[in-house]
Amino acid sequence: DAGVIQSPRHEVTEMGQEVTLRCKPISGHDYLFWYRQTMMRGLELLIYFNNNVPIDDSGMPEDRFSAKMPNASFSTLKIQPSEPRDSAVYFCASSRLASRGTQYFGPGTRLLVL
Amino acid sequence: KNEVEQSPQNLTAQEGEFITINCSYSVGISALHWLQQHPGGGIVSLFMLSSGKKKHGRLIATINIQEKHSSLHITASHPRDSAVYICAANNNNDMRFGAGTRLTVKP
To answer: How far apart are alpha carbons A106 and B105 in whole angstroms?
Structure first.
């Protein structure tokens, strides 16, 4: 398997623009997680899905952030409008058994909002 | 006080030394994860444990549920072990992360 795939790997945008990050989980994994990593706050869980359904989005910082999983092989994290403080590395991870399963991380998307 | 505390924050060792990284947590957990983040930024899951001890090659992870403490040990450390090691407390998918321990192993 190719592992968790994220795109783009790098994104530079201007404040106010819409940003869409994409993730393809490992086939057969029924849990998908979105994380954000910053120097100040470290790693934070934003939202996770089970069988394409959002289970816990309490980590989503504000209404400018939204995530969808239209099918088992694709998820998006959207920021609209983007702000400089959204600059971070965004990781997607997937697992088979959630809290009892190893999570496999994607390479991350490095986002810079100018 | 952070819910997940790691120590030390930074650690420099000579090749071959035995390494210990500690993690204390104050939340209930269903599992405790140890992650390794390479200098390039990629994250690899090393261990997930809910009791006892696990071993993988030169890496050993232990957890004491009563004391809410976990340790990651590296035997015969090597420069390629240089990375940031992150502890994460998983309470039914509510993941709380430590700030990480930056390990540098010198040849």
So the answer is: 26
Q: Measured between alpha carbons, how far is A34 from A18 in angstroms, rounded to an integer?
A: 18
Q: Out of B33, B93, B100, whose CB is closest to A55?
A: B93
Q: CA of A18, closest CA in chain B: separation in Å?
A: 25
For B67-95, the pLDDT digits (tens) are: 999 999 999 999 999 999 999 998 877 88
The tens digit of pLDDT for each residue in B2-40 reads: 899 999 999 999 999 999 999 999 988 889 999 999 988
User: Nearest CA to CA, how far is B32 from chain A (Å)?
Assistant: 9
pLDDT at B1: 63
Closest CA to B103 of B18, B1, B5, B4: B18
Q: Which residues contact A104 (CB under 8 A, 6 or more apart)?
A: A3, A4, A26, A29, A93, A94, A95, B45
